[in-house]
Specification:
Layout: E1 2-4, E2 10-17, E3 22-32, H1 38-44, E4 48-59, E5 62-72, H2 73-79
Antiparallel strand pairs: 1-2, 2-3, 3-5, 4-5
Amino acid sequence: MLAVIPASGVHEQAAWDSRTAIATPHRLEANVQPDSTSPLNLKRLGFQREGCSTAFRFINGEWSDRERWAITAEMAQAEAPWPKTS
């Protein structure tokens, strides 16, 4: 399993397929400020709230919390408006 953690707060875990040498995203995770509009957009995209990370980031001299949202490849496929592939 490969974990990529960019500075934006979005985390991706990918499975490596050695036959095609392509990293296939399995899970995306987003950590967002609870008082922003981001959770509404994440919910619309099929993400599910997994909890709250207290004292997640130190910003402007104080620790701030973040809501943790995630979606897996299986969840995204189930939510997809296009025909499913097998």
